[in-house]
Design a protein that fits this description.
Lipocalin, single chain, 2 domains, 188 residues
Length: 188
């Protein structure tokens, strides 16, 4: 999908550069966002001409040339295949071996954005992203903490039919680390 969009943009840029460099003055370039069409209009005013066999003067005139370039449209928005809600557990330990554990819950929207929460030994919010191939990265912020005291959650989400599952690791710098897992259902 990214390569098609990139090729589309390169074509538009090349056409615009050619229009600017090669065409005479009074040019208009129109790019319509709703369609993959570029319209380039150039108008050149010709100077008055004197006929060679009579005293007739040809009046100035404008010549307008319009070129329309249509490319293949970029694909429509495709919702994230991992869209759904997941619930699970987390556990780990502090660097001094104090055990940590709790539950977690998060949703993944059509854009792959993740929002949720965790509770247990620590309580907080989770925000993050899942990419097109299921790589998940989430930042967890314990209540009353700042971003500097957050946890990072890394994993890969799997889809099987309408079921989602994830197992991964979390860490809070050198202070704590552990594992987490969650399951859920696809909602698209």
């Amino acid at each position: 999908m990214g390569k098609k969009i990139s090729i589309f943009l390169v074509i538009i840029i090349v056409v615009i550069i050619l229009a600017v460099v090669l065409w005479p003055r009074s040019k208009t370039v129109t790019v319509t966002a709703a369609t993959p069409t570029v319209i380039i209009t150039s108008t050149k005013t010709l100077p008055p001409q004197t006929g060679t066999t009579s005293s007739e003067v040809i009046q100035p005139q404008s010549v307008t040339t319009t070129i329309t370039v249509t490319t293949t449209a970029a694909p429509a928005f495709v919702p994230c295949i991992y869209q759904g809600t997941m619930n699970g557990n987390w556990s780990g330990k502090m660097s001094n071996s104090t055990p940590l554990n709790g539950t977690l819950s998060f949703t993944i929207d059509a854009n792959g954005d993740i929002k949720g929460s965790f509770d247990g030994t620590y309580v907080g919010t989770m925000t993050g992203q899942v990419d097109l191939i299921g790589n998940l990265i989430v930042i967890g912020i314990p209540s009353g903490s700042t971003v500097n005291m957050g946890t990072t959650w890394l994993a890969h989400i799997s889809v099987s039919g309408n079921s989602l599952s994830v197992q991964g690791n979390w860490f809070a710098g050198k202070y704590a680390s552990g594992t987490f897992s969650a399951t859920g259902n696809v909602s698209h």
